[in-house]
Amino acid sequence: MLSMRLFPAAFVPVLALAAGLFAAPDLLRGQEISSPYDFIDTRHQAGVFVGYAGENRGQLDLSPGGGLLLGARYGIELSGPFALEATAFFIPTERNVYDPSTDPAEGLPPLLGTSSSLIGGLDARLRFTLTGDRTWYRLAPFVTMGGGLASDLTQRSSLEDELASDERFSLGPSFLGVLGAGTRWLPSDNLTIRFDATFHIWKAGTPRAFFEFEEQFGSVPEGEWTGVGGLTLGSSIRW
């Protein structure tokens, strides 16, 4: 009878040791410090974006207006925080058409109407990610800068059929400068959601006939560098 009473008591230290072994992993996990930073393991990305481009028609009111901005991009990660990107975009919009063949003594050139315009741009950019090759809570804020070419891709407006070549407006091919900032959100291993605020600058040509209206305009630029801001939201696949 005595041995039967002692038998359960002999197992108490064994059971306590087993319980401690089972609880140890949970205790160790509770002591781990989780980091908000995650490494970006993929190098390539390709995607599309949509947004809005602001309006800057220039001093002479000749440049195309703003509107919907559509585009696509490809990027490749370099070492550390740097990446290279190639971007193509389009802005379907409209522009004002004036008739500078009139007598300057009669005032400013009369407006003939508005014409469709399609601004196209192609550029290469260097992207610098502020968090390096990692994300912070899955966010990767960045700044970009680059250059390329921009042009009005539409054919001559029917409103300009009666105008001489030195009376017609043209845009490009012109050097395109790009500055921007934004952030990427990486919700999964292969998907990126991206927000960009950009500033594009290109040179719009001045028809020679407009120099006859120097007194009316105050001054007429040889060519006008117009800056256009934009906001875009896009998504990309990474691999």
In brief:
This protein has 239 residues and is mainly β. The protein has 3 helices and 10 strands; from the N terminus they run H-H-E-E-E-E-E-E-E-E-E-H-E. The protein has helices at 2-10, 12-30, 214-217; strands at residues 37-39, 44-53, 67-77, 82-98, 111-129, 134-136, 139-152, 174-185, 191-205, 223-238.
Overview of this structure, please?
The protein has 239 residues and is mainly beta. The chain has a single domain, classed as Porin. 13% of the residues lie in helices and 50% in strands. The chain has helices at 2-10, 12-30, 214-217, and strands at 37-39, 44-53, 67-77, 82-98, 111-129, 134-136, 139-152, 174-185, 191-205, 223-238. The strands form 2 sheets. An 8-stranded antiparallel β-barrel has the order 2-3-4-5-7-8-9-10. It has a two-stranded antiparallel ribbon with strand order 1-6. A hairpin with a 5-residue loop joins strand 8 (174-185) and strand 9. It starts with a helix and ends with a strand.
Rounded to the nearest angstrom, the distance between the terminal CA atoms is 72 Å
The Rg value, from CA coordinates, equals 31 Å
Average pLDDT number: 89
CATH topology: Porin
Domains (count)? 1
Helix content: 10-25%
SSE string, helix = H, strand = E?
Answer: HHEEEEEEEEEHE
**Per CATH, which architecture?**
Beta Barrel
SS content category: mainly beta
* Molecular shape: elongated
- What summary fits the major beta sheet? 8 strands, antiparallel, barrel
* Strand neighbour order, sheet with most strands: 2-3-4-5-7-8-9-10
Q: Give unreliable regions as ranges.
A: none
Strand content: over 45%
Count of runs of 4 or more consecutive helical residues: 3
CATH class: Mainly Beta
The overall strand count is: 10
